[in-house]
Design brief:
heterodimer; A: 629 residues; alpha/beta; Beta-Lactamase; Alpha-Beta Plaits; 4 domains; eight-stranded mixed beta barrel; five-stranded antiparallel β-sheet; 23 helices; B: 379 residues; alpha+beta; nine-stranded antiparallel β-sheet; six-stranded mixed β-sheet; 8 helices; 27 strands; 23% helix
């Protein structure tokens, strides 16, 4: 038998354990020990086989999962709107998506992983469209894109596309380029920028761009160079819009902008400021007469008829001009001055131009102050109503008063209606002022005898709101006087407004029981058709005819004709501005019904009215001087 | 310092050959044997002033021999080293950290050179126990030891203290003074296999899911018909775990229990959520290489202090024993080959090993390793 020490250690240990105390070997025990080692080894082999099998299955499942994930990644990558290309740390392409290929115009064969960026750019069909120099430039820009944490680049490619390239470092030392075609974004941005600075209808520069252009002109100014800033306003445009509709109005504005543009030089700027307002920067003005000449040409050109959608349209324009040294040009100031000149041109009767002068500024300042004072006047009770008597010529008694508003300003003193009524009309204060006068007059008249009427003047503008009859009704109700004592005076100019609406309101006022008279007859159109269209109760012959009586035979003829006409139609006639007894004699002879003027009394405050009505009533006797005035 | 291995089969008769009264007696025994033997009590009676410490196991190590029955006893006498034994109850797993901390307080002294821990092996979170000790003694404290074992049975573990076997306690032995040198080595030698997995659900030392699937299912499929022997058969496939952000510190975890209803497994230490995990398996050669590596490390450290090992406490994992069977003695032989066949070896197969990491020197709980503690005392 082999010696114990020559045995393998395990077997030697087994032999040791199977040796009995007497030194003999327990073969059964040894076999058991050996056999259990075989079993253990067999068990371990089975375990290893089983584990290997499971591990292989697990690895296969993992591979399948990775393949599925790769497929999903590829689907996600290929459906991105941006192109992406991943490079390893040696700058070799690892993967790119379909969009990357499309943007660069790369064939599948060009996009093998392992290619470097230079090879990809050289193969790009999109970049091949550029000439050699441009292509090199575009490629180098991309190749030299900063290798820091992230970098970005935007290029315009030869086919007109705008392409952005973003580079991001990734943790393994490689980088990811993200490529986006931003052509549409850039177009949209440009479009938005254009819209922000241009008028959508005419595509002319708007106020913002006009201002920027003016600032540009200032920046590029040459020594002693001058320019003109013009403001234009179309005459009668509103009427076109109101009668023919906005589409025609819009087409007209486009036609106007084309005509203006055709008349200016290429470096001049035409802008639409809004509505029917335009502005022009005329550059390089050498002579003072140049802007005026341009203005005349524009007025002539814009006044020529237009044919729009079959309608023949005629309008005009007024132009305000400011001429300045370019180095002194202040956009706001220049536009304001041109606007003041425009205002002046319109005041001069439209269809003309006016060059700004400093007086315009002064008068504008005064006007602004007047407006401010007027706004305060109503609130502070500075308006007062005076009354001028009307005399029944046949009876030689007062049969009525005309209410006349006065403005008593603490500094300006008493301001004439001629100076403030037009301003109130323009400011939109006339409705409020008119209402105040009417209520005051009715309330005051309540204290007078029943047979005395009260006449109140109406501005044409008071008809615009359409609720004049309600205001009249309110004044009557508030004062409590019978409606037939209230006489409302209108001038012919009222008929220049919306005739239908005016007539409707006048009839409503008549239905209330009020009298309606036609004031200043003979000064305007003196169309007899007005008299035919509306049953006036009274016609007031303008004072200019009365003043000329005795000197001008035509005036007598006119007074005779009007008085005769009134007599025939059953309308009362009143002569205004009667200052002498001779004039009164003539009017008496011509059967004029009543008279009004300084011969009897100037307009007086309420407290003096009593004395006029009751000359014999001692406590309220008016002073002789007052009467004589 | 003197060390004398006793032949337990001779009972108290063997004591007659001792060179003096021992300061310390280590005693390890198969669970039932330890419970029923009268020898520990007789030893305590014979040496009332000696400290006696040991624990239960499935296999004892008596020098280079292994045995699944009987006791392994060694007596030690110190010349210059003071020792102290502290025992603290460990009522349940939740008290692991607290018990460690309490023992840490009892051990703490400026001249503490090292400590050796033996603990209840089933109702314990070994990681928490060690952290409790470190919370008092510091991360660089020299701690080694193990959790008591019960072979493949996983039914009951005991710590024997001064002749009395007790359950649900942790005992800590402190070595004090400059004369004593204590070094450690710990290594497994297990091979990783299969895919890297991720802990997707866990609580403390209970692992519920790996990669979103029940952890027990994975073990059952790998064990096949041996799954019936869980938790013991689970020791064939330890789990390596590591934190992705700190891949240097790797731990090996082994199974202590399974819950078939919750499909969870309870490991001998913490298994944090989100950590990586990979199955391991052993080949005899590599496991024996692991034992050699542990011995070499402990031996070199002691040599560096100019000392030779006078005693080797050998704590090895029950999983190694289950896998290697009769070949298990090869790992003890391999250790003796390095530290010298003259150095007495005593130890047991445990449910968890405690020792400093070979590299970081920070103490922790290990599984499936050979963990050695070498002692030498300066003359």
């Amino acid at each position: 038998m082999t010696e114990k020490q020559d045995l393998p250690p395990l077997l030697a240990r087994q032999v040791g354990k199977a040796t009995l105390p007497d030194g003999s070997l327990d073969a059964q025990k040894l076999l058991g020990l050996v056999s259990s080692v075989y079993e253990a080894n067999e068990r371990d082999r089975r375990r290893t086989d089983h584990a290997n099998e499971l591990m292989a299955q697990e690895l296969e499942d993992a591979l399948t999962a990775i393949e599925l994930q790769n497929m999903r990644f590829k689907a996600a990558l290929d459906n991105m709107t941006q192109g992406v290309c991943l490079f390893d740390k040696a700058a070799r392409m690892a993967v790119c998506n379909r969009r990357f290929q499309e943007i660069y115009g790369l064939e599948d064969a060009d996009c093998k992983s392992g290619n470097n960026l230079m090879a990809l750019l050289l193969a790009s069909n999109a970049l091949k469209q550029a000439d050699e120099m441009e292509r090199r430039l575009l490629m180098n820009e991309h190749l030299e894109l900063d290798q820091g944490a992230s970098a970005a680049l935007e290029q315009e490619w030869p086919d007109g596309r705008h392409i952005t390239i973003h580079r991001n470092r990734i943790p393994d030392g490689g980088f990811l380029d993200t490529i986006a075609d931003v052509t549409e974004n850039r177009k949209a941005s440009a479009q938005i920028a254009h819209l922000a600075r241009h008028d959508a209808l005419t595509d002319l520069p708007n106020r913002l761009l006009l201002r920027e252009r003016m600032q540009e002109v200032v920046r590029n100014a040459l020594r002693d160079e001058r320019c003109a800033i013009m403001c234009l306003d179309l005459d009668r445009f509103k009427m076109v819009n109101d009668t023919l509709g906005h589409p025609v109005g819009d087409a007209l504005l486009v036609a106007v902008s084309e005509r203006i543009t055709s008349l200016v030089r290429s470096n001049d700027v035409v802008a639409r400021l809004g509505g029917d307002e335009f502005a022009i920067i005329q550059q390089h003005v050498r002579k003072q007469s140049e802007p005026a000449r341009l203005a005349r040409r524009i007025i002539a050109e814009l006044s020529k008829p237009y044919v729009i959608e079959g309608h023949k349209v005629q309008i005009g324009t007024s132009i305000g001009i400011e001429i300045v040294n370019v180095s002194d040009l202040n956009p706001d100031e220049a536009l304001r001055n041109a606007d003041l000149a425009l205002y002046e041109a319109k005041a001069q009767g439209r269809g003309t131009y006016c060059v700004y002068s400093s007086e315009m500024h002064d008068s504008a300042t005064k006007r602004r102050e007047l407006e401010t004072d007027l706004r305060d006047a109503l609130a502070q009770g500075q308006f007062v109503v005076h009354y001028q008597p009307q005399l029944d010529i046949r009876e030689n008694t007062i049969n009525g008063f005309e209410a006349l508003v006065r403005w008593e300003h603490p500094v300006r003193g008493t301001v004439s209606p001629v100076d403030f009524i037009p301003v109130c009309e323009e400011m939109g204060l006339i409705d409020e002022l008119g209402k105040f006068v009417m209520q005051r007059a009715c309330t005051d008249a309540k204290q007078w005898p029943e047979h005395i009427s009260i006449a109140v003047n109406l501005s044409p503008l008071q008809f615009r709101s359409g609720n004049l009859p309600d205001i009249v009704k309110g004044a009557i109700a508030l004062s409590g006087i019978p409606a037939n004592r209230l006489e409302l005076e209108i001038t012919e100019s009222v008929m220049l407004e919306d005739v239908a609406s005016v007539l409707e309101q006048l009839r409503a006022i008549k239905r209330l029981g009020c009298q309606v008279s036609l004031d200043d007859f003979g000064t305007g159109y003196s169309s007899l058709s007005y008299i035919r269209h509306f049953p006036f109760d009274r016609i007031k012959i303008d004072q200019s005819f009365v003043k000329d009586l005795g000197d001008n035979p035509d005036s007598l003829a006119i007074i005779r004709a009007v008085a005769g006409l009134c007599g025939s139609l059953g309308i009362k006639s009143t002569a205004e501005g009667v200052e002498t007894l001779d004039q009164l004699d003539i009017l008496t002879r011509e059967h004029c019904d009543s008279a009004q003027g300084y011969l009897f009394s100037k307009p007086v405050p309420l407290e003096q009215v009593h004395a006029l009505i009751y000359p014999d009533d001692p406590p309220k006797q008016a002073k002789p001087a007052d009467k004589a005035a | 310092m003197w060390v004398k291995q006793l032949d337990a089969t001779q009972g108290v008769e063997g004591l007659k050959s001792l060179p003096g009264t021992p300061d310390l007696i280590f005693i390890f025994g198969e669970t039932e044997g330890l419970k029923n033997s009268t020898l520990p009590g007789e030893l305590a009676k014979s040496f009332p002033d000696s400290i006696q410490l040991g624990c239960s196991t499935g296999t004892i190590i008596d020098h280079v021999k292994l045995s699944d029955e009987g006791l392994s006893i060694i007596a030690v006498g110190f010349e210059h080293t003071r020792i102290a034994l502290h025992v603290h109850p460990l009522p349940d797993i939740a008290h692991s950290h607290e018990t460690g901390a309490e023992l840490g307080k009892l051990l703490a002294a400026p001249d503490l050179a090292g400590s050796f821990i033996l603990s209840e092996g089933l109702g314990v979170n070994g990681s928490a126990l060690v952290q409790g000790l470190q919370s008092i003694l510091g991360n660089d404290a020299v701690i080694s030891g193990g959790l008591a074992g019960d072979g493949a049975r996983f039914e009951q573990t005991l710590v024997t203290v001064n002749g009395k076997p007790v359950s649900k306690v942790t005992a800590a032995l402190g070595f004090y003074g400059d004369a004593i040198s204590i070094t450690h080595g710990s290594a497994g030698g297990w091979d990783e296999f299969g895919p890297k997995r991720r802990v997707t659900k866990s609580e403390g030392s209970v692992l519920f899911e790996l990669d979103g699937k029940p952890a027990l299912d994975l073990y059952e499929s790998y064990l096949g018909e041996e799954a019936a022997d869980l938790p013991a058969s689970g020791l064939l496939y330890p789990l390596k775990i590591w934190n992705e952000s700190n891949p240097q510190d790797q731990f090996v975890r082994t199974i202590l229990a399974v819950d078939r209803d919750a499909k969870s497994i309870t490991l001998a230490g913490d298994i944090p959520d989100g950590w990586n995990a990979r199955l391991m398996r052993g080949s005899f050669d590599h496991l024996v290489d692991g034992a050699s590596e542990a011995a070499q490390h402990a031996h070199d450290d002691l040599n560096a202090k100019g000392m030779q090992a006078e005693l080797c406490l050998f704590v090895s994992c029950v999983g190694r024993r289950l896998l290697m069977g009769q070949s298990t003695e090869d790992e003890v032989e391999a250790v003796a080959d390095i530290i010298g066949h003259g150095t007495p070896i005593i130890g047991y197969y445990s449910y968890g090993e405690i020792a400093p990491h070979n590299v970081s020197k920070v103490c922790g709980l290990h599984n499936q390793t050979v963990t050695l503690t070498l002692f030498a005392e300066a003359a």
